[in-house]
């Protein structure tokens, strides 16, 4: 038994070394597209039915909570929840905008596990991690809640 424990302890550093030192991001050809607060942008995602959805909105818009009364959609397009959720900084990107808008209209929860917005969440992970380095930092707007007047188109 002692020998087995010793073997496991010996292998631990090797497991740690198995984590690649080069980020997977480059291999997956992911990309970060910055957006400017106040600009018009088109959110796109694929829903749980496999349809392509799109919605045109304003970066940094404040939709408040979703129609179920939950969530924080106070700074749409910011990587991180609302205007103040944990993040590396106040970074606004295309993928974070798409994920926020998808989440708002689908009452999404659970991040990557959400059936409608999980893929959009996955696409936004590199934006969340690299947005500051990629120069996507913006000043948060401080706009009052204004609900969207249209809904996404899914085909
Ligand atoms: C979101 O939740 C609200 C309130 O329960 C409900 O009326 C609405 O249909 C839900 N939207 C979606 C896309 O599930």
From TrEMBL:
<feature type="domain" description="DUF8213">
    <location>
        <begin position="30"/>
        <end position="155"/>
    </location>
</feature>
<dbReference type="InterPro" id="IPR058526">
    <property type="entry name" value="DUF8213"/>
</dbReference>
<feature type="signal peptide">
    <location>
        <begin position="1"/>
        <end position="18"/>
    </location>
</feature>
<keyword id="KW-0732">Signal</keyword>
<dbReference type="Pfam" id="PF26641">
    <property type="entry name" value="DUF8213"/>
</dbReference>
<protein>
    <recommendedName>
        <fullName>DUF8213 domain-containing protein</fullName>
    </recommendedName>
</protein>
């Amino acid at each position: 038994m002692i020998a087995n424990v010793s073997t496991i302890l010996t292998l631990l550093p090797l497991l740690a070394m198995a984590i690649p030192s080069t980020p997977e991001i480059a291999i997956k050809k992911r990309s970060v597209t910055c957006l400017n607060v106040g600009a018009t942008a088109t959110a796109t995602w694929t829903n749980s039915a496999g349809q392509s959805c799109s919605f045109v909105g304003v970066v940094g818009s404040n939709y408040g909570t979703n129609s179920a009364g939950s969530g924080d959609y106070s700074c749409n397009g910011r990587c991180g929840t609302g205007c103040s959720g944990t993040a590396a900084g106040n970074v606004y990107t295309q993928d974070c905008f798409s994920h926020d808008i998808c989440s708002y209209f689908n009452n999404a929860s659970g991040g990557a596990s959400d059936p409608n917005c999980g893929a959009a969440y996955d696409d936004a992970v590199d934006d969340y991690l690299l947005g500051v380095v990629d120069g996507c930092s913006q000043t948060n707007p401080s706009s009052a809640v204004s609900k969207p007047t249209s809904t996404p188109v899914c085909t």
